[in-house]
Amino acid sequence: MLPAGLQLSAAADLTDAVTAWLTWLGAEKRASKHTLDGYGRDLAAFLLFLTEHHGALPTLASLAALTPADIRAFLARRTEAGISRASLARGLSALRSLFARLDQQGVLHNPVMAAIRTPRLPKAAPKALSEAEAADSLEHIAEIASEPWIGDRDLALITLLYGCGLRLGEALGLTRAEAPLSDVLRVRGKGNKERIVPVLPVINAAMQAYLAACPHPLPPDGPLFVGARGGPLNPGVVQRQVRRLRAALALPESATPHALRHSFATHLLASGGDLRTIQELLGHASLSTTQRYTEVDAARLLAVHRAAHPRSRRAVSTP
Q: Is 167 designated active site?
């Protein structure tokens, strides 16, 4: 089904095909709501462009007749509108997926996307907190809560994010029966892939304190983390609390819930953890994704070296 509020500028046959494709992505490929919403917006923008470009609502037949020049014209229009390269790349990913699915179903065959190159994206290194900033965050997160039990909840949550390297969605997706009260935790990550991560005693303690303080019933198959009224905890509430923490501790703008996951990986690497192990703990499909953390660690080591080495504080004399 189409994301709520999404309107497509397309004929009925193409609208039905796009709706079926998005439904398939969600049901069969287990794409997240975030991905489905983004892909839906990208397709809506593309179909609106085709409507203006050709002067008629696009159909399956007109999609089958598209040329590389049509796709490049769309990309040029988006670039002129100030769309980032990351968003352009996501839009192309959506188009490739749609064309591949329609070809697989025998609905249409058009290899046009093979002629289009995805924009090269700059590989930004993940932004991690320092060890002191992470420690301060854990120490003070409970202080900004509106109620003591909410403070216990927030401490348990960010201790879990930092201590296990979980994504926020992974943590909020845990049920009460999956609460990390033992030495290991099974995590369902992207693509519904499962991984096992070790659980530190400090995480056990924070979780037990939250469970003891929570005033709402937590059935085994219900969410582990709940909001003020007992419903599933909204990610926006967590992000808001971290923004308040950021202001209270004068942390950088990059201090977000996801930065705790980056900090987990960066601090493990700095302490001698190997990339393959960190890859497994983070649930990365590719080692190249994990290797980005070596850039963070190298930058940190260089900064420490420059600050600590005695020669760095002297002017270099020339013979």
A: yes
